[in-house]
Specification:
Largest sheet: 7 strands, mixed
Helix content: 25-40%
Strand order of the largest sheet: 14-15-18-13-21-19-20
Oligomer: single chain
CATH superfamily of the largest domain: FAD/NAD(P)-binding domain
Number of strands: 23
Number of helices: 14
Structural class: alpha+beta
């Protein structure tokens, strides 16, 4: 395949991909077999004149290298065809299909890391047993909706726990900073299981909260069809160790008992604090790691669209943004920005209030929201392995005390700056379905975090003037941005207990859906002695 990058077409115009490829390659129509869209991004640098930038793949008749040389264009090169699925990727790297034939491997957790570890194990011939403390995604979605409507918190099945992991109730973003075939295979697999072909070419692909349950269920059914098994509503409460090696997992719930196993992939997510505590007590080597805390900030989506596009553009999707700044030596950045989305109550522990953001595929909501968060490290919360967990819990409980409920404390940005409780809303109405309560969020976060948020909002307003509007709505607190713990592993993905293999975001080795899933692939391959 020949890859052609950097093809600009005015946004709103319908591109003729074959014609564009013919002109770029200087070949005749009969010399081209097929044209494939590989990438599409939106260039807003000359707003209000906006351009889609495409990368195309062309299958041609004749010598690809000769055609590329004749073009004398750095944006034209011979390239591999895009990865079409996880199975395609495993075949390309030479992973033997029966490498783990007949072996049973436990996978603890069914978020992106756990699901893709299990799917990879199944392709390698193993029988994965996936142990998930929460419900399957269909039952989980119903429980979460009841919670959003004011129902009780289920500490085992909620926005954080259950099939699909924390990412199920998010925007379903798949863009990632990591490269490589595993990440491409993950995106292709999501596309195949109901996510849509556009995931494979959009520069910032996202599945959407409304489609994620369908996609997750599709992957589960594929794993089961290949011999895998799922234990839902079952959590790991202890591990058996003999001579430094894993021997068993103690299970509690629907499948209570002891599961004898010499291999377990640990993909529990960043909120499984009880698992961290159990492993720490069992002497598993772990350390604290930096993370970030802060708030969700909401604006009207139409204001973000106008700022980013320079005009009203009904033909374009809801606009996003991504900002970062250093303020007095401390980092502050926007995170998990959800165009046309909503703020969600995301608690997993009684007496703690947490927020996150999500949006459906259409991103058609009235508000835009994003985390506005500040980095913290051991100098802020202490050097113990679980000190970051205690730090998160402290501020989540402060937010619950301020709100009196799992609905978040809310404050206008102008009042947050003035350190006074808001008394009325202005242009922006909070989107959280659980509701909200006016409170002073300054009491729910460390003073240095609050100060940095105020300063960073003013910096980001240089890019989007409405960003620091006094009527912008803040909701607190955003604490589950990444794992506060790293469970140490060696080059073969084993922890200090041989056979226990930490994986994904919860273990401190990924951040986001795609990188977590790719790490699941990596660790599953390591079970077969294949290292990528």
């Amino acid at each position: 395949m020949i890859r052609i990058d950097g093809i600009s077409v005015k946004a709103g115009d319908t591109p003729d991909f074959e014609g564009l490829a013919l002109r770029a390659l200087h070949i005749r129509k009969q010399d081209i077999v097929k044209t494939v869209l590989l990438k599409r991004s939106l260039d807003c640098r000359k707003k209000p004149d906006l351009y889609h930038v495409y990368s195309l793949g062309a299958e041609v008749r004749g010598d690809e290298n000769r055609i590329v040389r004749a073009c004398r264009n750095a944006k034209v090169r011979v390239a591999e065809a895009p990865v079409d699925s996880l199975e395609d990727y495993l075949s390309r790297i030479g992973a033997p299909k029966g490498a783990l034939s007949g072996k049973t491997v436990a996978v603890v957790g069914s978020g992106p890391a756990g699901l893709f570890a299990a799917l990879t194990l199944a392709y390698l011939g193993a029988k994965p047993v996936v142990i998930e403390r929460g419900s399957n995604v269909e039952e989980r979605a119903a429980k979460v909706e009841r919670f959003f409507a004011g129902g009780e918190l289920d500490e085992e099945c909620n926005v954080q726990f259950g099939e699909g992991g924390a990412g199920t109730f998010s925007d379903g973003k798949l863009n990632t900073g990591i490269g490589g075939g595993a990440a491409a295979a993950v995106v292709a697999e999501f596309a195949k299981n109901g996510g849509g072909e556009e995931l494979k070419y959009e520069n910032k692909p996202h599945i959407g909260t409304d489609l994620l349950p369908v996609v997750v269920a599709g992957i589960r059914l594929k794993i089961i069809a290949m011999g895998g098994e799922f234990y839902f509503n079952t959590k790991v409460t202890d591990i058996g160790v003999r001579g430094g090696k894993l021997t068993s997992l103690t299970l509690e719930g629907e499948r209570s008992g002891v599961l004898e196993t010499e291999r377990a992939i640990l993909a529990v997510g960043h909120s499984a604090r009880d698992v961290y505590e159990t492993l720490y007590m069992r002497g598993v080597d772990m350390t604290s790691k930096p993370f970030a805390v802060g708030v969700r900030i909401e604006h009207l989506q139409k204001d973000i669209n106008f700022a980013q596009y320079g005009a009203v553009r009904s033909d374009l999707p809801a606009a996003d943004y991504k900002f970062a700044a250093q303020v007095e030596g401390r980092g502050c950045y926007t995170f998990c920005m959800c165009p046309g989305g909503e703020v969600v109550a995301a608690a997993s522990e009684k007496g703690g209030c947490v927020v996150n953001g999500m949006s459906n595929r259409a991103r058609s909501g009235e508000n835009a929201n994003s985390a506005l968060i500040v980095t913290v490290n051991s100098a802020d919360f202490g050097g113990g392995a679980l000190d970051g967990v205690a730090f998160q819990r402290k501020w989540e409980r402060a937010a619950f005390a301020a709100s009196g409920d799992y609905a978040p404390p809310v404050q206008l940005l102008g009042d947050f700056k003035a350190k006074k409780v808001s008394s009325a809303l202005r242009e922006v109405t909070p989107s959280c379905k659980r509701g909200y309560k006016f409170a002073d969020i300054n009491a729910c976060l460390p003073p240095y975090v609050c100060k940095t948020i105020v300063q960073a909002a003013d910096i980001f307003a240089k890019k989007i003037p409405v960003f620091n509007s006094e009527s912008s709505v803040l909701s607190g607190v955003e604490t589950r941005t990444s794992s506060p713990v790293r469970i140490m592993r060696d080059e073969k993905c084993d922890s200090s207990v041989y056979g226990l293999m930490p994986c994904g975001e919860g273990a401190g080795y990924a951040g986001g859906i795609t990188s977590s899933a790719a790490d699941g692939v990596r660790v599953a391959l390591a079970c077969a002695g294949i290292y990528i």
